[in-house]
Amino acid sequence: MICDEAGLPLDFLITAGEESDYNYALPLLKKYPHSNVIADRGYDSDEIVNFITTQGSEAVIPARKNRIHARKHDPIAYKLRNKIERLFGRLKQFRKLAVRFEKYLRNYASLVYLACSYVWLNQM
Predict the structure, then answer these.
(1) What is the DSSP letter of 55?
(2) Which of 59, 76, 82, 98 has the greatest CB tally within 10 Å of its CB?
(3) CATH number for the domain harbouring residue 87
(4) Tens of pLDDT along the chain (124 residues)?
């Protein structure tokens, strides 16, 4: 999922449970212009960081612990990552999303769209 600076959802992709999320980060990042990209260590790959920096943006992603040459990141800006975490907390209030009652991707995606619409409407 990608959200704006206010923590409102912009777009999402649903992946399989055992598949890595960073494989789908680039398609989402290519859709939206951004100034800073704040993500957790799971998105620390050379491909993602290089894409962000070639776009003229700043990658606020801490380096993984197994990196030989750790990159620096802004720890103050990294604290803003709680916006996406709080968004997921709001979405998980919808029981059908948290438990994933729907087996079909189409039905589950429509529930996510509905929950995201609810989050947008409550911010207005």
Answers:
(1) T
(2) 59
(3) 3.30.420
(4) 999 889 999 999 988 777 777 788 888 888 888 778 999 888 888 899 999 999 988 889 998 888 888 888 888 999 999 999 999 999 999 888 888 888 899 999 999 999 999 999 987 6
Q: Distance between CA atoms of 19 and 32, rounded to whole angstroms?
A: 23
Q: How many residues does the chain have?
A: 124
* CA 103/CA 114 separation, integer angstroms: 17
Residue among 46, 78, 50, 76 at smallest CA distance from 62: 78
Note down the domain range covering 69: 2-123
Q: How many domains does the chain have?
A: 1
The tokens describing 67, both together, are 């990196």
pTM: 0.83
CA distances from 92 to 31, 100, 108, 112, 118 (A): 25, 10, 13, 10, 12
